Amino acid sequence: DISFSINRTKAASYGVPLHEIDRTIRAAFAGVDVSRYRDEEGKEYDIVIRMPFKIRPSLSDFDKVFVKSMSGRFIPLKQVTDIRFSAAPTEISHFKAERTASVTCDVAKGYTVDEIQKQMQQQMSQLDMPDGYSYIFGGELESREETFGGMAEAAIIAIIAIFAVLVLQFRSFGQPLIIFVSIPLAIIGSIWALYITGWTFSFTALIGMTSLIGIVINDSIILVDYSNVLMRDEKKNTVEAVIEAGQTRFMPILLTSLTTIGGLLPLTLRGGALWAPMGWTIIGGLLFSTVLTLIVVPVLYSIFTTKNQNSALKQDPIEI
Is 287 in contact with 189 (CB distance < 8 Å)? Predict the structure, then answer.
């Protein structure tokens, strides 16, 4: 764009009002309606006055523009203004009622969005931003945060609902907590699997972790429920019940995990960047949690199952 910077000191010394400069420039190049012409047939036409140029004005045309002062003298436009070129956007974009400028880019092959965003964040934090200016990261990062926010709320609601059902089933708050110990074990395994394979925690990985939580909770329920059955029906003590439950349910739990891992391997190895994170999330979580669940859950069960709970287990279970 061509911009005009008015020299207020000179304009005041020549007696030229600021609005007169603006009106003169507009009239010279954009034109201004001064009257209307009516022909013999009654048709009316606007009479527009402007500088005489055929196609478009040139920089030399500014030398022909004079501004009228309050004393009636005509002052050259260049005497009271500085004319220069300035960059301007083709359109004005807004985000949350504020003017914005967007810079877009694609991540090169061999890099991830998280790596690039982290480096950009470090460099942008070193900039001395003027007052009124700020920056945000959008694109895939923004979409991921919005998606993860909704999924996190859904996951919390699901966990609360599962916990409520387990409390009704076992008539205890302690045993559902023991069952829920398998969740952080699975999460640790998923994080390690993604770290070793080099994949980032994407939206599909979050879906895989949600599915993983249901699988590992089911394994813990099998151990705890069978231990309760042995203590209630066969009158075994806590240690004997835990040992027999672990021996009896070891192969079903192990085979369930192995068949799930085997079914996910083709999708994980050939699914590319979309499905590989989900597959490795489930596989890593299952491998880690299956081994530790068979150890941690029985140990916690034998420690925190009190005599009062033992007597309660001798009662008939609640049917849901």
Answer: yes
